[in-house]
Amino acid sequence: MIQVFPADSRFNVDHGWLRSRLSFSFGNYYDPNNTGFGVLRVCNDDDVDPDKGFGAHPHSDMEILTIVLSGSVRHEDNLGNMEVTTTGEVQRMSAGSGVVHAEYNASQTEPMRILQLWFMPNERGLDPSYETRRYHSEKLKNALLPIVDPQGSEQTVKIHQDLTLYLSRLDKDKDITFQQGEGRRIFLFVIEGRITVNNTRLGEGDTARIESLSQLSIMAVEDAFLMLIDLP
């Protein structure tokens, strides 16, 4: 089953300095029928003005990923981490037993666009931790490149959950396939361009929640940039 959520169905937030498109209930937006997909709880597509951001605030028992699509984000936390993550990098923070952090646009002149994703961890009360990785952007071309997985490596950040997050840049008319494991879920987000998934069309900003399919065939109708998450 492929359930498509068009871009215009996302809830839009405009705080002036922050313009956010929400795929799930978050903050003041609450829909009891849209609180998550498997262990995925948040998928926010954020545009942040220069030198603005999210001030210090606490979290616990959540795996939080930030994928920088343009610009750079400055991270600070009460564990002593202070780092700037730029386009082509991914940041993972395990809130665990509790952490206080802040995330700001690191530039005073350029806007920033990030994807922020929250996942339930596979265990509560973990020690809080933080890491970043730069992935090889050229390896996204017409392939699914893992940038987050449970093992962690020189190319992937380690997440405390049985999931893998992939990015891909598909040239027009190119296609890739993905085998979906039994009992698994797939969350698909079209960051740029247009694609088809098993002949179902998705445009820029659209998402799909996919279950009970053994194989996905993804083809670019035009040059496309996409995120695929394999979830329990």
Could you explain how this protein is built, in words?
There is one protein chain. This protein has 232 residues and is mainly β. It has no helices and 22 strands. A hairpin with a 4-residue loop joins strand 7 and strand 8 (82-86).
Radius of gyration: 17 Å
β-strand percent reads over 45%
**What's the end-to-end separation, in Å?**
16 Å
Shape: globular
Number of helices: 0
Q: Please, what is the average pLDDT? A: 97
DSSP helix fraction: under 10%
**Low-confidence region ranges:** none
Biggest beta sheet summary: 7 strands, mixed
What is the ordering of alpha helices and beta strands? Answer: EEEEEEEEEEEEEEEEEEEEEE
**Biggest sheet: strand arrangement:** 1-20-17-22-15-13-14
* Count of β-strands: 22
Q: Class by helix and strand content?
A: mainly beta
Quick overview:
This protein is 0% helix and 55% strand.
Notable features of this structure?
232 residues; 22 strands; globular
Write the layout of secondary structure elements.
Layout: E1 2-5, E2 11-14, E3 18-22, E4 40-48, E5 53-59, E6 63-70, E7 72-77, E8 82-86, E9 89-94, E10 99-105, E11 112-119, E12 129-134, E13 145-149, E14 157-158, E15 164-170, E16 175-179, E17 185-192, E18 195-197, E19 200-202, E20 207-211, E21 215-220, E22 224-231
Parallel strand pairs: 13-14
Antiparallel strand pairs: 1-20, 2-3, 3-4, 4-11, 5-10, 6-9, 6-11, 7-8, 7-10, 9-12, 13-15, 15-22, 16-21, 17-20, 17-22, 18-19, 18-21
